[in-house]
Specification:
Layout: H1 2-8, E1 24-29, H2 34-40, E2 46-50, H3 64-77, E3 82-86, H4 113-119, H5 121-134, E4 139-144, H6 150-170, E5 177-183, H7 186-190, H8 192-196, E6 201-204, H9 206-213, H10 232-247, E7 251-254, H11 265-271, E8 275-278, H12 283-292
Parallel strand pairs: 1-2, 1-8, 2-3, 3-4, 4-5, 5-6, 6-7, 7-8
Helix pairs in contact: 3-5, 5-6
């Protein structure tokens, strides 16, 4: 309890080091109900809203209005703080019966995320329209997962433009919004210079990036002794991504589990990471850590 009281001293304070380096501390959430916990934890925005949970635990697709209401709830609750909504990442370890997906030997390398969305344009358009409609109620970023390069990104941006056209034809309004991609494939790291010129922000998904860089299935418990999240290749990939992004004026967040790893906080700040997005319970401990650091 004493520890919790000490952490309360950091509520409302800036996430800034002793030497004046600022970073945004955002929350990862899965559903509208999580927004309250994120606000209670003093988040500075939502760095990752996972859309999958709006599709799980039901037996049919959510409608555009259902999705819109969920997104709008979060966007309004955040009251001007940015909410980064990741488009649907179904597949891999998140399967939905009514999606009728073909069985796959390697689901982590399979028809998932944007690959699934690009093969089901109606599904994708419904979601994009819902996110765009929510954008007029606050500060929204749209983030595409599992991108591998500019060609895919162009197709995704075309889908977004189509969704705008649909809303305009209906007479519906949407607000300004930022567009970003998740950096979680080695291909995206190598193409980060080209991608950065086409988007407003990157978010590094360290969970998937680590499993793909190390060629290790993160769902396999037998690999735990081998899976080193601090592997130099992971940190090198993050460094390269941040450098290329900043050259193009693109901001970079980290939203995977490593974002909350206090052993790496100083390294991330030195690399120039702009945002860390973590579980709500990790926000105040991380702010305490950040405010204790002096980056000479």
């Amino acid at each position: 309890a004493a520890g919790r009281a000490a952490l309360e001293a950091y509520r409302g304070k800036e996430s800034v080091t002793k030497s004046g380096k600022k970073i945004i501390l955002a929350a990862n959430i899965g559903c509208p109900e999580d927004a309250e916990a994120a606000l209670a934890a003093d988040c500075e925005g939502v760095g990752l809203m996972r859309s999958e949970f709006l599709y799980l635990g039901r037996d049919s697709l959510p409608t555009e209005d259902e999705l819109f209401e969920s997104y709008k709830t979060v966007v309004q609750a955040m009251d001007g703080r940015e909410v980064i909504i990741r488009t649907l990442d179904i597949g891999a370890d998140k399967q939905v019966g009514y999606f009728d997906m073909p069985p796959e030997d390697n689901p982590a390398l399979g028809l998932r995320a944007i690959r699934l969305c690009l093969t089901r344009p109606i599904l994708f358009q419904t979601q994009l329209c819902a996110i765009l409609r929510a954008s007029r109620y606050g500060n929204v970023g749209i983030m595409f997962p599992m991108v591998t390069g500019p060609d895919e990104l162009h197709r995704l941006k075309e889908a977004l433009a189509d969704a705008e056209d649909v809303l305009i034809a209906r007479g519906e309004r949407f607000g300004p919004y930022r567009v970003g991609v998740m950096i979680e494939t080695p291909a995206a790291v190598f193409m980060s210079g080209e991608l950065a010129g086409e988007v407003d922000f990157f978010s590094i998904g360290t969970n998937d990036l680590t499993q793909y860089l190390l060629a290790m299935d993160r769902q396999n418990p037998n690999l735990a002794p081998f899976c080193d999240p601090h592997h130099p290749a992971v940190l090198r990939a993050i460094r390269q991504t941040v450098e290329r992004a900043h050259q193009a004026g693109c901001t970079v967040g980290i939203c995977g589990e490593l974002a909350a790893d206090e052993a790496l906080t100083e390294a991330f700040l030195r690399l120039g990471v702009d945002e860390l997005s973590v579980a709500p319970s990790r926000i105040l401990p991380l702010r305490e850590k950040i405010r204790s650091l002096t980056l000479g």
